[in-house]
Amino acid sequence: MNGATALIETLADCGVELCIANPGTSEMHLVQALDSVPQMKSVLALFEGVCTGAADGYARMTGKPAATLLHLGPGLANGIANLHNARRANSPIINIVGNHPNYHVGFDAPLTSDIETLAKNYSSWIKSCSTNETLAQDGADAYTATLRQSAGSNGQIATLIMGADTAWGESSGPVMPNALPQRSKIDEQPIERIAPLLEKGGRTVMLLEHHATDPAALAAASKIASKTGCRLMTGTFPARVDGGPGAVAVERLPYFPEQVLQTLDGVEHLIIVGGQVPASFFAYKGIPGQLVPKGCKVSRLTYIEEDSIDALQPVSYTHLTLPTNREV
């Protein structure tokens, strides 16, 4: 078995079901491997931006990482715009980027480039020194990295830069998947600090982003809103918010800074859950960069890497003393 097949079998065993590919010569052994592993579906895209955009959309809808297969640095560069969007949405994606073997890089062939520098802009995990024997384990580690949350994370994008020789070289076979990482849970202190602010009533907004827009998190936030009258909002472009009959109604921050400040006018407490303080998309003369109205106090329940569902549920069930005054 070669390294390419060991990699694809390992990713399939981890749970990766889809690879969206725009391959070239350096990735042909990966293409053959995809054909030989029926557990992973491969889809050919005619432009790398389609690969990365589709992987982003798949991750937002399923919560699971898809793989992309891209051709060297120029191919990766063609997909960067949608990888930027995926990073902002905290979408899990595994990029497999083909490269020349080390012995060929020194010849400065026409498609030679510094792939790792390109990948650093949006990747939370990068590996560029795989061998045919380590490639399978590197794939398992890439999968784990897409599920791991950390402070200051560049999203959940893993980029595996694979020399062609590591794909065609002999491998001892696939490896077992790693243990799955779990989100960190907050202690009682933030909950005890936030609950009295919520009990003050209707001039409080909870800004819910990322993990806090999961249906279970929104259900807990809705219970809080029904008890306290606080407003529920998401950022301007949330990664995903479920809609339709029975879904929790959540306001969305407007795009332009003047509209954001107007929407938040009169708010005394802005509670951040899973995201960051609202910031203007661009700098405007005479308008603050952080869009918090005067007199509004900003507090935080959870950071992006923390478990917002686990944090919101105790608030909704045990830390609020007001009676329910409206339907959830």
Q: Mind describing the biggest β-sheet?
A: 6 strands, parallel
Percent in helix: 25-40%
Tell me which oligomeric state these chains represent. single chain
Number of domains: 2
**Order of strands in the sheet with most strands:** 2-1-3-4-6-5
Number of helices: 13
Structural class: alpha/beta
Radius of gyration: 23 Å
The number of E-state strands comes to 11
Strand/helix succession: HEHEHEHHEHHEHEHHEHEEHEEH
**Percentage of residues in strands:** 15-25%
CATH architecture of the largest domain: 3-Layer(aba) Sandwich
Q: CATH top level of the largest domain?
A: Alpha Beta
Distance N to C terminus: 56 Å
**Could you name the CATH homologous superfamily of the largest domain?**
Thiamin diphosphate (ThDP)-binding fold, Pyr/PP domains
Low-confidence blocks of residues = 322-328
Mean pLDDT: 92
Principal-axis shape: elongated
